């Protein structure tokens, strides 16, 4: 709005002032809406001003007008997507036309008497990114509305959106979709199991603008600029490593956000808001609403991601204006985190809060945030369509992952059912806990070793409780992801010593750094790869940046002097990579000895089978490794050529299928006598675990939350029966293996 003149700002301020007075009025809703449209028409020098509000069925109802026939009010309704009003609602952008009747979307409504009006300007009325209506001005003359007038009308629409949503008004408009208030249930896919009840916390936290209109625009502008300066300084501080902890986002995202924070257009839009008479907070909310609405409408994932980053920035700025930029400060008790998606580093920031569940509009079950949620024992449901649009901060929510459902603003009956289920679950937990000391053996005596996956010190608390025989996979990368510089050998040694100490007599398999893919750390900045999951990650990075690998191995050796050390290398793709890594480790053992340190009492070196290429070399690598572990999360993504993080592909391919199970059976058989486990997420799901046992795997490592259910399945299973069943299934074509196994369980009385 560089060409905006002071008159426009002056008139918009005048208008906002009178809207504020109207807001304070006692009158009924209709009278207030009528006053608003006539004031707006007068100040905007428009022949017509109309407010259309969105009804629950998506139609737009003319609710107040100055200039059109008054009989049309509450009788003219534009169907979802109909006419120019529908076009504004659809695009969520202002539509300005000098010759509206000739536009192809124009829908003629004789009852409104709109024949004489040629020009049309419609802007969306948004609240928290949700469309609640459309504000329209029309003129008889053919005119092109200048950009500054469009901006002013948008500002007015923002304020109107807030006024209409104010509780006393919205309660008088029950048929309209002002704010979701009715109970509703939303469904998605369960990523981490559990039952929970709590209060919606929107991620990142909403800092609502309590005051919309400013008394002193100059002072607001300078507050806004101070906020922007603090925001940029804060981000710089994080990036230059002055801050002790990493902020709300992983560093790569943080860098992107820091870059966006310098964006002059963003600043310009905000300054325009304050100059037009909004408070700094309301100006940010206006811009955030626009970002959010565009994000929800964007079909392109890349664009959605960028808009998501912008929204994160808006939220950060609001927190700065409120005088704090501490993400977790806003977390209420019994919080249910509601987000479009969340990164692993972000989720770790909530580790010490009273988080009861996580609901995501997107996300995937094998993504690292889901893995962390399972490790933390926090129920998580993802891929809930429309979640953000239907949830208000503070909504009461019940989460039931068995049904993959979130009940928003639930009614007493849902609460009653929840409480009954909760009591039953507690009783069930007591029963299952009693299993923890029971040996994991099938009915016909086949022992299946159950281990747990971990990545945080706090996970080790589950080791005894879960009854796991050890840690089959310790993911070491989380320490690297949450600190903003490469952890030093000392810090790594401390972590590994704590883990070994907490594990007591039980073995721990440490996997060396697996950064890359969706696990980004600070020192990895550089060119973004086209296919990071298949890029420079895991052992590839370790072999190229030997210093990082060597320091980690050194820390592992220091933490396990005279103790048992199991080291496993991730994403080995060719046998020579394993040879090279093993040689580095053995050299480190010699070096430690030369320094007077004790070598481990027992050293076992293993490789992960995650790349199909190594699966085909398994008999060769099995001769060189002390043990192997199949990482089905990665192996299946490469096997099916299906990104493990893709929401759209999540349901398409199934490990319980002939190609996948035959492949895994081949791997197991070719490993010979070398112990080989499965440590992907599938091992923790009873039905999948059952199939894995059926093809011969007898070591499974899984999130602790899956252990008791898998053990229960094992105790109820006759191994010989199962093996025959699987053989039989794999001999058939076009067999629905999931279904077959479910039926098998039903006839055998096995609970899965
Ligand atoms: C796997 O790929 O199955 C695995 C266990 O490793 P991560 O999930 O950490 O990639
Ligand atoms: Mg992996």
Helix tally?
Answer: 28
The bound ligands are: phosphoenolpyruvate, magnesium ion
Low-pLDDT ranges: 1-7, 242-252
What Rg do the Cα atoms give?
Answer: 30 Å
The name of the CATH topology of the largest domain is: TIM Barrel
What characteristic shape results from the CA principal axes? elongated
CATH architecture designation of the largest domain: Alpha-Beta Barrel
Tell me the strand order in the biggest sheet: 7-14-13-9-10-11-12-8
Description of the structure:
- This protein has 752 residues and is of the alpha/beta class.
- It has four domains: 165 residues, Beta-Lactamase; 121 residues, Glucose Oxidase, domain 1, CATH 3.50.30.10; 106 residues, PtsI, HPr-binding domain (Enzyme I, Chain A, domain 2, Orthogonal Bundle), CATH 1.10.274.10; 314 residues, Alpha-Beta Barrel (TIM Barrel), CATH 3.20.20.60.
- It has 28 helices and 22 strands.
- The strands form three sheets. Strands 7-14-13-9-10-11-12-8 form an eight-stranded mixed β-sheet. The protein has an eight-stranded parallel β-sheet with strand order 21-20-19-18-17-16-15-22.
- Strand 5 and strand 6 form a beta hairpin.
- The longest helix is centred in the N-terminal third of the chain and has 23 residues.
- The chain is elongated and about 85 Å long.
- The N terminus is likely disordered.
């Amino acid at each position: 709005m560089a060409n905006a003149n002071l008159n426009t700002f002056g008139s918009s301020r005048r208008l906002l002032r009178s809207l504020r007075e109207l807001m304070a009025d006692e009158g009924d809703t209709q009278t207030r809406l009528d006053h608003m449209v006539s004031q707006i028409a007068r100040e905007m020098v428009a022949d017509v001003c109309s407010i259309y509000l969105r009804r629950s069925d998506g139609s737009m109802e003319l609710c107040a007008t100055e200039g059109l026939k008054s009989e049309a009010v509450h009788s003219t309704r534009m169907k979802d997507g109909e006419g120019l009003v529908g076009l504004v609602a659809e695009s969520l952008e202002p539509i300005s036309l000098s010759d509206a009747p000739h536009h192809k979307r124009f829908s003629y409504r004789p009852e409104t008497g709109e024949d004489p009006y040629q020009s049309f300007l419609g802007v969306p009325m948004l609240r928290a990114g949700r469309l609640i209506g459309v504000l329209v001005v029309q003129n008889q003359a053919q005119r092109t509305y200048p950009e500054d007038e469009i901006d002013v009308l948008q500002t007015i629409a923002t304020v109107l959106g807030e006024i209409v949503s104010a509780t006393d008004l919205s309660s008088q408009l029950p048929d309209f979709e002002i704010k979701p208030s009715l109970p509703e249930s939303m469904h998605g896919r369960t990523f981490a199991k559990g039952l929970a009840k709590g209060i919606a916390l929107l991620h990142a936290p909403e800092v609502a603008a309590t005051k919309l209109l400013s008394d002193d625009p100059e002072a607001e502008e300078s507050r806004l600029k101070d906020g922007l300066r603090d925001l940029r300084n804060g981000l710089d501080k994080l990036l230059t490593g002055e801050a002790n902890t990493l902020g709300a986002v992983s560093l790569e995202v943080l860098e992107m956000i820091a870059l966006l924070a310098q964006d002059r257009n963003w600043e310009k839009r905000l300054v325009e808001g304050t100059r037009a008479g909004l408070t700094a907070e309301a100006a940010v909310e206006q811009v955030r609403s626009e970002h959010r609405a565009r994000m929800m409408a964007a079909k392109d994932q890349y664009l959605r991601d960028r808009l998501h980053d912008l929204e994160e920035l808006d939220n950060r700025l609001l927190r700065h204006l409120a005088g704090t930029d501490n993400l977790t400060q806003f977390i209420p008790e019994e919080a249910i985190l509601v987000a479009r998606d969340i990164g692993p580093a972000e989720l770790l920031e909530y580790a010490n809060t009273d988080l009861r569940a996580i609901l995501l509009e997107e996300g995937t079950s094998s993504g690292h945030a889901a893995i962390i949620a399972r490790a933390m024992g926090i129920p998580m449901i993802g891929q809930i369509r429309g979640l953000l649009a239907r949830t208000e901060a503070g909504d009461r929510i019940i989460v039931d992952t068995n049904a993959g459902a979130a009940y928003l603003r639930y009614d007493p009956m849902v609460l009653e059912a929840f409480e009954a289920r909760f009591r039953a679950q507690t009783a069930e937990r007591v029963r299952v806990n009693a299993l923890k000391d029971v040996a994991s053996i099938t009915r016909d005596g086949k022992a299946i070793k159950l281990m747990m996956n971990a990545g945080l010190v706090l996970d080790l608390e589950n080791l005894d409780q879960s009854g796991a025989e050890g840690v089959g996979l310790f993911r070491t990368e989380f320490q690297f992801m949450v600190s903003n510089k490469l952890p030093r050998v000392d810090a790594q040694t401390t972590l590994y010593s704590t883990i070994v100490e907490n594990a007591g007599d039980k073995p721990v398999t440490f996997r060396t750094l697996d950064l890359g893919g969706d696990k980004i750390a600070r020192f990895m900045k550089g060119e973004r790869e086209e296919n990071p999951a298949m890029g420079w990650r895991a052992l590839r990075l370790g072999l190229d940046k030997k210093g990082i690998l060597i320091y980690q191995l050194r820390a592992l050796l220091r933490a396990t002097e005279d103790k048992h050390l199991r080291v496993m290398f991730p994403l080995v793709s060719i046998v020579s990579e394993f040879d090279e890594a093993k040689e580095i480790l053995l050299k480190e053992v010699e070096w430690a000895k030369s320094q007077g340190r004790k070598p481990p009492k027992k050293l076992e070196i293993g490789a992960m089978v995650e790349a199909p290429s190594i699966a085909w070399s398994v008999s060769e690598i099995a001769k060189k490794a002390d043990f192997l572990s199949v990482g089905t999360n990665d192996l299946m993504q490469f096997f099916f050529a299906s990104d493990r993080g893709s929401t759209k592909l999540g349901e398409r391919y199934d490990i319980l299928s002939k190609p996948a199970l035959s492949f895994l059976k081949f791997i197991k058989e070719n490993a010979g006598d070398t112990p080989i486990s499965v440590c992907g997420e599938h091992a923790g799901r009873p039905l999948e675990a059952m199939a894995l046992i059926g093809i011969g795997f007898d070591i499974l490592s899984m999130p602790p939350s899956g252990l008791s259910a898998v053990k229960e399945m094992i105790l109820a299973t006759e191994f010989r029966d199962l093996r025959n069943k699987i053989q039989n299934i794999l001999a058939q074509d076009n067999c629905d293996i999931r279904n077959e196994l479910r039926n098998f369980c039903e006839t055998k009385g096995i609970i899965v």
